[in-house]
């Protein structure tokens, strides 16, 4: 008796032909962009630059120029989007925060230099959320008060100017010659003057009649506002103007 060959081999299911092409996910079908910074190419998802920066959002909305081989700017290594005036180390640090390799790593574990680079480029390109994140992280980070002042002067962070000056004025030791050389002579002289002013009025740590407590919770001598008034006012205005752009878009 001949065995039925179909008994051990179940009938195959006929393939259902696709009636239409698969659709692209609206969320996770990511377009990339190729940047050139100095002598290095970077290829990353475009979405973070589009969402986070009004400047890149406007840039990518414009028609992209093509090179002689038909590649749109930023679409390939042959025609990258060149970021002039940007240092590679700063851009790499920005990308480290925007696209972390280890999703379990906390951003707060990044060194201060990384966050200063994020602060620099986020202000240049209107990444408001990244800028706020950098300010928040560096505010609680351990940083030499003079270094904090220098960064605050560069990027107009008024609360760091106040806390940095306050720490230098009220600490036990005056500015060293090496510290004085890091800032303008007028700044070093004003710090020395404010320190003398503070020490003359000091009873215990502070004289209560010599303090002003600001909404953020830190305390500075009134003489600080008098001696650094113009610089602090400019920093306040510029910082407020920058952050107002977040709500104006």
TrEMBL record:
Composition-biased stretches (Polar residues): 1-10
Database matches in CDD domains: BTB_POZ_ZBTB_KLHL-like (cd18186)
Coiled-coil region list: none
Domain of life according to the entry: Eukaryota
InterPro entries: BTB/POZ_dom (IPR000210), SKP1/BTB/POZ_sf (IPR011333)
Matching Pfam families: BTB
The protein's name in its UniProt record: BTB domain-containing protein
Native species: Hypsizygus marmoreus (White beech mushroom)
